[in-house]
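Example record for the data management plan.
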Amino acid sequence: MADFGVLALAAYLPRTRLPHTVVAAAHAWANSGRRHRADTARRVAAYDEDTVTMAVEAGRAALAGTAAEPQSLAIASTTLPFADRSAATLVAEALGLPANLLSQDCGGSLRAATSLLMSRRGGRSLCIASDTRPAKPGSSAELHNGDAAAAILLGDSDSGEGLLARWLGSASVNADLVDHYRAAGAAFDYALEGRWLRQEGYARIAPQAVAMALAEAGIAAPAVDRLLIAGIEPAAVTTVAKAAGLSRIDTADAVGGQVGFTGSAHPYLLLVDALSRCQGGEKIVLCGFGQGCDAIVLEAGAGCASAPQLRGFQNLLDDYRDENSYTRYLTGKGLLQMDWGLRAERDNRTAMTSFYRNRDAVTGFSGGRCQACGTVQFPRSAICVNPECRSRDSQRAFSLRDEAARVKSFTEDWQAYCPVPPLMYGNVQFDCGANVIMEYTDYLPGELATGQALRMVFRIKDVDRQRHFRRYCWKAAACPAARRAH
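Corresponding structural encoding:
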């Protein structure tokens, strides 16, 4: 019988990091007694990022180098941008996955991501968790919350690939303990006293789930090497470990102090970090907490630490740019409404029929390659753009999402509207020969230069605030190696 478990996993972190010192300095006049560490920070999604765009990036990273496509895709999140539009379907199309893929959206609880894993015990499933949890300015959540996404590809070892972690057992305890909530239509969470969560939730409910999962796996508590539990309370791991009798585990949350608590995505993020550092054979208990607790027991695979997606996790942590403007952070999050003048007064209504017919180009970034001469172009057209070819109906779909490219030309436009100006766009030259006018993203003024290496990223194009619809597209961003060199 084939073993079941984790075939691949990867994380995505927004590049922007908001140091706690910046937040504390902005609120010192109102709350000078707030305690924070000088070396802590949180990751912040850019103005054109949300749970959908981060899910696409995490999914791309997890699927990179895998042998076969998943049979299903599901997204767990408490902050999906649409209450009634399938984010999983949108992500699947952005990833170029088949139309007959089973897709599903999951939410409603911070443990949605671990519950999702427990429901995918058959077939080959891509499970993505992504959250951008909102926080009211001046609240403790503003310091502790973070934005991130991570993806786990589950499947059987008989697919020809080794397991990064073998599934040993799992259990779930449901208990409607309300330590925080966000009502439908509300912008922010309402949190109760932390002691209530520690004493009743982490000390009583979570240990039950851990004990049941270990019993199913046939493992004694002293044999556990690592306990990974995501929670709003920083002391969650220590509290659960003591109550569950886990005596020799690694309880450190290596990412919380530099990323923040990332909601439903945090269990996956902790697993990526743990597998990037642990030895084969280590026993790991992964927990998700929220109106109960899920516990999953895993055994690290022999090659987990050498997996490409895991080796790159430290690079994600090291690749950041500190946001030193609290006002710019608020504006990017939509918490401060700037007056951009007449240039921002335009109707962004989306022609849904046109979008549907062209979604392979808009969402999938699919152009065409001429079967007669090999010319790659975007968008695809009836006649080849090569003047020496001009073949008719000769193009086949060719996606540019993973193609290498460089800056050919650029403009920093301070007159056009952009939530975080200037608007940057220009001519992108792909190594495959395609040439496309695109927006640039994640650059500060003065950073763009011709010849720079680029990677394509899925981002928000614009938002129709009158009809509450957001459009997505592909933009060009600097490659991580080029950013570090810069």
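Summary line stored alongside the record: The chain has a mean pLDDT of 89.
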